[in-house]
Design a protein that fits this description.
Elements: H1 7-10, E1 18-23, H2 38-48, E2 52-57, H3 61-76, H4 88-105, E3 109-112, E4 127-131, H5 135-138, H6 150-166, E5 169-172, H7 175-185, E6 192-194, H8 207-216, E7 222-225, H9 231-234, H10 236-248, E8 253-256
Parallel strand pairs: 1-2, 1-3, 3-4, 4-5, 5-6, 7-8
């Protein structure tokens, strides 16, 4: 399955591609503080390529209290973790909000930096998502995705599968994530692609500036940089071990965390 653009877009090359940018409170393209600025910089990159970005902001207020109650019930009575962001009722509410706003703004494409918000969309518009992993890969890997309630497992798997079946393009940040999507949910391989993480820079340097900075670097030692908020999961221990191994072999190494 491939993305098929509307006839009025194909016949009118003099106007920009209109992208309905779907966002939640966690993935806010208007905030550089949201998810390390990822959603923000994706939007800016699309704009630089000539696209018109039209925000489709989703709200979960009607479900907050109900999902909080479910979360507490599973936590204290069943000793399981309930994923509020994968609740089918919340995702169907998202779908209704997207469908309603799409009718008003009439975008050419719906784009979301995540799968779940697009799972139950019914608008006849090509959808594209970008993600750094699948629900199945995150389960029992991320601390917040361990010891899940059965209802959350089923809801998470169903949401990813539905988003993959309906989308025109499924973009993942790594081949590992793309391969897992293909193996676990078996979508059409033609629509699964890898678009790696980029650098979240407010001002991108030109190639000449980069080359000058590389040439100006001191070569007296090997300087390593580790960046990660959840440092235990991100492998800070490995970074420290690698630095130690380099020093043991006589390489002057320095690690900044």
């Amino acid at each position: 399955m491939s993305v098929s653009l509307p006839a009025d877009l194909r016949d009118s090359a003099d106007r920009p591609l209109r992208i309905g940018y779907v966002s939640t409170e966690y993935l806010d393209p208007a905030s550089v503080r949201s998810w390390s600025g990822l959603a923000y910089f994706i939007g800016r990159s699309l704009e630089r390529q000539g696209a018109e970005i039209i925000p489709i902001a989703l709200r979960d207020c009607p479900r907050k209290q109900l999902n909080r109650a479910r979360f507490l019930f599973h936590r204290f009575f069943r000793h399981r973790r309930f994923l509020r962001d994968r609740d089918p009722g919340l995702l169907r509410s998202y779908a209704r909000q997207i469908d309603r706003q799409a009718r008003q703004i009439r975008p050419d494409i719906l784009f979301c930096p995540g799968t779940a918000p697009l799972a139950f969309v019914t608008a006849k518009i090509p959808t594209v998502f970008w993600s750094d992993g699948t629900f199945g890969a995150m389960r029992d890997f991320y601390p917040s995705y361990t010891n899940l309630a059965a209802t959350s497992i089923q809801a998470g798997e169903n949401a990813d599968r539905a988003a993959l079946q309906k989308c025109g393009l499924a973009l993942y940040s790594s081949q590992w994530a793309a391969d897992h999507a293909l193996q676990c949910y078996r979508p059409d391989p033609a629509k699964v692609h890898v678009v790696p993480f980029g650098a979240n820079l407010a001002e991108e340097p030109d190639e000449a500036s980069v080359l000058r900075a590389v040439r100006a670097r001191s070569s007296d030692r090997c300087r390593l940089l580790f960046v990660g908020v959840e440092w235990e999961r991100k492998g800070a221990d490995q970074a420290i071990a690698i630095t130690g191994a380099l020093r043991d072999r006589g390489v002057p190494a320095e690690l900044a965390i």
